[in-house]
Amino acid sequence: RASLIVADELGETAWSLELGPTASMVFTALAWPAGLADRAGARASTHGIEALAWSTRWGAMSALQRPRSNAAGAPHEIHAEYAPQPWLLSRASVPKSAIKAIEAAPTGHVIVLEKVGGGTDIHRLRRFDPQACTPAGCADRAFEVPAPPGLPETLNWEGLACRPDGVCVVVSDDADLVGHGWLMLLRLRVE
Length: 191
What we know:
globular, 4-stranded antiparallel sheet
């Protein structure tokens, strides 16, 4: 048996898709958390839902690409089905801080792939413990994602998956390296 969450970026529709052993499929409509369902003023493509993940502890998790507010210091919000309130994560002081992916680690931590723009893009993995978050925010530990040797530092890392042993893989879909698209994996250990 397998489960898949499917959603559109504007946050208007989401389904849980259950794949049965006989290739049967059952779609169940999901209700978005209130903070994501309230889409007024956030229809720009850079403010859409960018990241989905599943946690056995927290259920479906989702995050907008950028904070809904452009005010200085507005935090990123990560919503979880079974969390009483969104987890707030500070963003970089530059305006182009964006969440690209989220992942639930077996340790109970949540790992966020963040792109920080401003001249040269930097990608960071940020790890936090949701149970230690307060209404004021979550304390996190950040790890910079290095560029693989021989490749430009401007790779566009878009996806994230982590194994139980703490090894994470980030994926780039960059098409600007040599005139055609690339799919690259970079293994990192997040401890």
